[in-house]
């Protein structure tokens, strides 16, 4: 009987220990996270960021949403093997914003994107020639729509 009690106690301790164990680091997925622009490089020159930084959110259903800094936009995207990606902005709000030249250049640059990589919580979008690079940081590591159930 004492062996049985010790076995139960060991199982309970193991279960509590597993629950409090740190979560494993997993690779960051393209979808389900909000990405915030860190820098935009066009023709080997870094473009000055606006006061309000652009954001991107890729969904599982090939929809992309975001902010160009002031105006919001939506569109679609497609991903292929080898880190290939296409982004097609579909529409945007049309508010007058302080930095319209940046917003226009940013939205145009999204249509030029051909490749992407994700490394260490950074998303890099490129045009395939190295002349356009959009670098984003992860806004939050918790996927959108996922709640911690522990």
**SS summary, helix count:** 2
Question: How many strand elements?
Answer: 9
Rg from C-alpha positions?
Answer: 21 Å
SSE topology string: HEEEEEEHEEE
Shape, per Cα inertia axes: globular
Unreliable residue runs? 3-26
Q: What's the overall average pLDDT, rounded?
A: 82
Residues in β-strands, percent: 35-45%
**Structural class label:** alpha+beta
The end-to-end distance, rounded to whole angstroms, is 33 Å
Note the main sheet. Answer: 9 strands, antiparallel
Helix content: 10-25%
Oligomer: single chain
Explained architecture:
- Strands 1, 2, 3, 4, 5, 6, 7, 8 and 9 form a nine-stranded antiparallel β-sheet that branches.
- The protein has helices at 2-19, 100-112; strands spanning 34-42, 45-47, 55-58, 63-67, 72-80, 84-92, 115-119, 122-126, 132-138.
- Helices cover 21% and strands 37% of the residues.
- The radius of gyration is 21 Å and the shape is globular.
- The protein starts with a helix and ends in a 12-residue tail after the last strand.
- It is an alpha+beta fold and 150 residues long.
Summarize the structure.
The chain has 150 residues and is of the alpha+beta class. Helix content is 21%, strand content 37%.
Labels describing this entry:
150 residues, alpha+beta, 9 strands
Task: Present the secondary structure layout.
Layout: H1 2-19, E1 34-42, E2 45-47, E3 55-58, E4 63-67, E5 72-80, E6 84-92, H2 100-112, E7 115-119, E8 122-126, E9 132-138
Antiparallel strand pairs: 1-2, 1-3, 1-9, 3-4, 4-5, 5-6, 7-8, 8-9
């Amino acid at each position: 009987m004492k062996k049985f009690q010790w076995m139960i106690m060991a199982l309970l301790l193991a279960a509590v220990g597993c629950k409090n164990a740190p979560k494993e680091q997993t690779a960051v997925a393209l979808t389900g996270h909000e990405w915030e622009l860190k820098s935009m490089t066009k023709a080997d020159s870094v473009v000055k960021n606006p006061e309000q930084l652009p954001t991107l959110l890729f969904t599982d259903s090939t929809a992309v949403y975001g902010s160009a800094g002031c105006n919001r936009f939506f569109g679609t995207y497609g991903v292929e093997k080898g880190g290939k990606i296409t982004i097609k902005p579909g529409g945007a709000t049309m508010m007058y914003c302080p930095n319209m030249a940046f917003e226009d250049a940013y939205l145009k640059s999204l249509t030029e994107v051909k490749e992407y990589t994700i490394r260490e919580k950074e998303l890099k979008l490129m045009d395939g020639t190295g002349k356009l690079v959009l670098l984003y940081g992860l806004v939050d590591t918790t996927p959108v729509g996922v709640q911690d159930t522990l």
